[in-house]
Structure to design on (366 residues):
């Protein structure tokens, strides 16, 4: 399995969690061998689909948790514009803290599966013996891995709120709206949706082959909802602060116009004849770019008017065109920012959502 991530410099990084895959597979095999060795009825154990699928199912949980952590770390590095550095002790401390939080988050599911698992152990004790308790241990590891996935998805939303401050957005309008080089958190949302898509496929495989429990659908639904909340919440925060920054720019232009004594003091823009300037007032200001909101259009008209009625004696035709293009692009990009990423997220979340709805009977006539 390979997932393309984006580092602090914006370059693609092919992340290959070889160690995690090997660790997960080895751990699954070791636990499986332990279960086999203590099972009273070896033939029944070998035919048990739950034990067969767990050899694949446990590594998938660990890989998805790994990618969620890695996606968040790369987003942090991109926001800092430098790779994170730290000692092994620092990373261990981080892991232990997140381990405690993840365990706390999934306690209700551990209890629910613990109750169901206890009944399973009692019912199958003659054939499976003590191996049933090992299965409960596997479920616990998988739930804690899911907890890691959840909290790191939500941490991207927290990072968005902290990173895209009003001051930062105002200072980096060109980077965000024109060059589109400063949106690592939107990219992280798309990458998280890929992780949930993989997690969803593995979950449906488990449900189809083993049967699954209601908690499996709940876990998948929560995972998809968290990814959507983190992405939409981050996009909303970004757009709100972009709106605020553009409003501030517009207020500056309006203040400049109000400070002018009279229209008789206005200078024509260098390089424009009077007739051309009047034509510009009609065509440039009144022309509405497709797709922008009414608020964006009103703001854009004020910005253009401020530029065309400027009293700067040195304001020439080239500068005017550049400024008009910039503010025009600001509003167009504001209306479309994140839409491509949102479509990608929704497409990847469609599979888990369809599976959950099908389970609930939405697609049936009953």
């Amino acid at each position: 399995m390979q997932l393309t991530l984006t580092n602090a410099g914006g370059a693609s990084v092919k992340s290959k969690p070889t160690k995690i895959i090997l660790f997960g597979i080895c751990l699954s095999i070791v636990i499986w061998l332990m279960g086999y060795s203590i099972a009273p009825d070896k033939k029944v154990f070998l035919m048990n689909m739950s034990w067969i699928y767990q050899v694949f199912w446990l590594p998938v949980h660990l890989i998805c948790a790994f990618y969620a952590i890695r996606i968040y770390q790369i987003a942090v590095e991109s926001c800092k514009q430098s790779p994170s550095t730290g000692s092994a002790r620092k990373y261990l401390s981080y892991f232990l803290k997140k381990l405690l939080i993840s365990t706390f988050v999934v306690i209700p599911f551990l209890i629910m599966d613990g109750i169901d698992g206890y009944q399973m152990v009692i019912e199958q004790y003659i054939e499976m013996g003590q191996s049933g308790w090992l299965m409960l241990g596997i479920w616990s590891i998988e739930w804690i891995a899911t907890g890691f996935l959840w909290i790191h998805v939500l941490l991207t939303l927290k990072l968005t709120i902290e990173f895209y401050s009003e001051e930062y957005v105002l200072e980096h309008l060109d980077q965000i709206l024109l060059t589109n080089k400063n949106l690592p958190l939107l990219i992280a949302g798309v990458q998280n949706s890929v992780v949930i898509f993989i997690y969803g496929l593995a979950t449906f495989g488990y449900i189809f082959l083993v049967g699954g429990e209601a908690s499996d659908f709940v876990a998948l639904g929560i995972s998809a909802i968290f990814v959507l909340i983190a992405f939409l919440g981050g996009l909303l925060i970004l757009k709100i602060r972009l709106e605020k920054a553009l409003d501030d720019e517009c207020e500056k232009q309006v203040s400049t116009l109000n400070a002018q004594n009279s229209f008789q003091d206005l200078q024509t823009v260098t390089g424009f004849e009077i007739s051309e300037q009047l034509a510009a007032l009609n065509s440039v200001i009144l022309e509405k770019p497709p797709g922008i909101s009414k608020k964006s259009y009103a703001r854009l008209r004020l910005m253009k008017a401020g530029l065309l009625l400027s009293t700067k004696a040195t304001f020439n035709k080239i500068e005017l065109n550049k400024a008009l293009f910039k503010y025009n692009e600001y509003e167009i990009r504001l209306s479309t920012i994140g839409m491509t990423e949102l479509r990608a997220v929704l497409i990847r979340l469609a599979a888990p959502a369809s599976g959950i709805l099908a389970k609930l009977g939405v697609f049936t006539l009953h």
